[in-house]
Structures
1.
Amino acid sequence: MSRLRPVVAIDGPTASGKSTVARAVAIRLGFRHIDTGAMYRSVALAAARRGVDLRDAAALTALAASLAIEFHPAPGGARGGERIVVDGEDVAEAVRAPEVSTAASIVSAVPGVRAALVARQQALGAAGGIVMEGRDIGTVVFPNAEVKVFLEAGLEARTRRRHDELTARGVEVDLDEVRRQEAERDARDVTRAHSPLRPADDAVILDTTLLTSEQVVAAIIQLVRERTDVV
Ligand code: DC
């Protein structure tokens, strides 16, 4: 595959700081930022609204293949940089609800759903100039990405981050409940048969537990500098 601009793949578990970091890296590079988790969340949200049973793999696959999911540039938007629009509706807020997180994790284990969304992600990033975040970007979606980063953070740090994020959005949740949900989602993402969460062999692993997001962004920009000629 030849592309003029690089693909920066950022993978990692839930609440590892991927979104904040991926968005900031994209802004610094002048690249697009695609949050692939929001795509799995969109399928889960649409399934709930249309009454599709989460055990019905065929119906979920058909939904993932047909749903109109678009990313629109929106500087300063809620997720910063890109708004996610599904069937004409801005769902940036709706897809962050805790029940959608759990449903997205279930939906993302369905092979047909993954195949449909991976194809869309590859099309979105084909020309490069993109920072794509998720779980399988460096392993499956863009195994030849010029820059691959895998973010890690301890469960406590991730629980605190998710709790802060939800509290900031006015969602009241118990810290223990957040920890339980994060651990459960991690376990499902890591153990699923199809494209489980794991670092690519050639990914750079960054433990963000003790780092600020600015430090993580700086480390990734440094990597981009070393591996490409864009900055
Ligand atoms: O990153 P997130 O929390 O928004 O992701 C929501 C769910 O989607 C999560 O349980 C894992 C799944 N996911 C995935 O399987 N592959 C991706 N590339 C992105 C997300």
2.
Amino acid sequence: MIKEGDKVLLIDRRGKSYLLTVSDREFHTDLGILNLGELIGREYGTRLETHRGEVFRVIKPNIADYIAKMKRGPQTVHPKDAAQIVAYAGISPGDFIVEAGVGSGALTLFLANVVGPEGRIVSYELREDFANIARRNIEWAGFSDRVTIKLGDVYEGIEERGVDHIVLDLPQPERVLPHAVEALKPGGYFVAYTPCANQVQRFHEHLTEYREYFGKPKTVECLVREQEVSKNCFRPSTRMLAHTGYITFIRRL
Ligand code: SAH
């Protein structure tokens, strides 16, 4: 049953959606005015009509909806890349992750959802303004119980020990390698997301000094090609996201 304060995803007939918090108030759309108070006491799956009779479907938002609708500061990690990070590193419920930088917290939300209520994420961020955006997003998505944001420079050190995985989205991941040696549990992954090929190259060059501590590195790029499916034509979409970043994985031995 939907209660006051619950989050709902409203979807109109064109597929346009809104992620809203339920309270006794009006919400204006280009298809007319919705009275959100009418939702209190109803079940997810219900329909809500605007004053013009336009129907909105009402469902419970999931993690993908929160990430799509969250407030953004710096460039976020795309869900296709977040999925590779989780899949290749084997990130699981209950894991303890150190992340940096938090940016807007898109990757943080994805990871917080995977580690679940028993997991923990400590996320380092240099900039207070980004940390504040991320904190708001984390609280809004309901993950304050498992995420801590630390204002600080992860190049200077990682205070945590017994860490399951380190996940980085920052310019010089090689500067975190000496700290990762101390912080990571054997078997834990060090994941570096970097947009540029020269960053990957530089990272691999530094890795040669750490052969004793880590397994063979693996770098991937993930391309997702959406398809247009209609009765007469089934083909790839004309436009595609060409490049986001490379993801490099090394495992602490
Ligand atoms: N992964 C995030 C985006 C991160 S953007 C998301 O999906 O939303 C990169 C962030 O790293 C920026 O916010 C930047 O301030 C932070 N950063 C850069 N160098 C850092 C360092 N040495 N320590 C901590 N944070 C750092």
